[in-house]
Amino acid sequence: MEEVELFLDFNDTIDFEQDFNVQDFNFSGEEEQTRIIKPKYKKGIKEKQLKYKYAKDMVKEIDIAAGFRAYAIVEGNFYFGDFIEALVYENCLLAKEMTISTLSLNQNNVDSLEMLLKHGYIDKLNLIVSNYYFSHERHALIPYIYRKLDYKDKFQLSVSRTHCKLCCMELDNGQKWVMHGSANLRSSGNVEQLMIEENPSLYDFNMEFQNQIIDEYKTIKKGVK
């Protein structure tokens, strides 16, 4: 009896006569009518349904003339990283510098960036990821990122307390693009919003603080083999 009393004292003593009432339970099978209803469940999109084709189709709808701006709500049937790849590859762009800030990414995103980097579509690549991601992937995708993207001294990985979802590109023709929205590189299966625009002032504003993060929280010593 003493052990039971000690256990109850530790968790604040329960007054069974006051707190427990059999009338609180519905045995009739009928639900009480209230203003609050259960949310409708929407099935997620399976990974095999996430296709580069959908990212490519979206890219075709964007007119990338100087000063353009495009805003979209996307249903999550492709990886955001695939959109970056499609945008660059399908338009034959050359990014003098690309800086991506994301909470997280997956192997598909890494392979996508590797293709752009090693085939000459990106001359300099900066990737900023969160501390959370780095700590959880330090024995898996983080070594994979270094192995795949640390190429000809063109890559830098920085790790910081970031929740930004940004992609900034300076092209060889002088244009400066900014992509921002709700999606991480590996985001899929959810409704996301995305803004892409050619906007030098917005690019410079974002790169000012992005460069501070890159310089302070970089993980690769350039020039060291």
Overall description:
The protein has helices at residues 2-10, 16-19, 52-60, 80-90, 107-118, 131-137, 141-149, 200-217, and strands spanning 69-74, 95-102, 125-130, 155-160, 166-171, 176-181, 192-198. The protein is of the alpha/beta class. The chain has one domain: 2-Layer Sandwich (Endonuclease, Chain A). It has a seven-stranded mixed β-sheet. Strand 2 (95-102), helix 5 and strand 3 (125-130) form a beta-alpha-beta unit. Helix 3 crosses helix 4. The chain is globular.
Q: Work out the count of structural domains.
A: 1
| Class by alpha and beta content | alpha/beta
Beta strand %:
15-25%
CATH class: Alpha Beta
Order of helices and strands: HHHEHEHEHHEEEEH
Report helical residue fraction.
25-40%
Distance between the termini: 70 Å
Q: What is the mean pLDDT? A: 87
Given the structure, what is the number of helices?
A: 8
Which strand order does the major sheet show? Answer: 1-7-6-5-2-3-4
The major sheet is characterized as: 7 strands, mixed
**Shape field:** globular
Annotation, overall tally of beta strands: 7
CATH superfamily: Endonuclease Chain A
Q: Spans of 5+ residues with little confidence (pLDDT < 50)?
A: 1-14
At the fold tier of CATH, the topology name is: Endonuclease, Chain A
Oligomer: single chain
Rg to the nearest angstrom?
25 Å
Any guess at the CATH architecture? 2-Layer Sandwich
